[in-house]
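B., you asked whether I could sanity-check this one before it goes into the benchmark set. Here's the sequence:
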Amino acid sequence: MAKKFIVFKDEDFGYEVALGHVQYHIELVPSSKKREDVVGGGLWHHDSGTKTMFFWGVSTEFGQATKEQFDTAMKNGYIGIRLEDMNVIFSDLLDFEDVLKEHGYGEHKINQSKEG
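And here's what the prediction gave me:
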């Protein structure tokens, strides 16, 4: 099981995000959607110490969502958690350590435990 997310097309909102602890990205597809509705996915990590939610990487099943698709989904969609007070970072990089470096987070700042 891993912390994964998908971005999928939605008639009302344009795009939405679904995330969870799953083995395969396909497990995140809502029953009301089709596999073809998914435009990409990746991994996520929540760091409570810095109040940061990281989204990065690529889904081997669906490929990688674009920043524009992700941003639209974050504005319009419901993802099951409150992000109002969070710093949300989306990166197209594949390695979490590279994402941290790209955004100026030192290893000492990020809690990489298994917490959600």
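One thing to flag: Residues 97 and 107 are 8 Å apart (CA to CA). Otherwise nothing jumped out at me.
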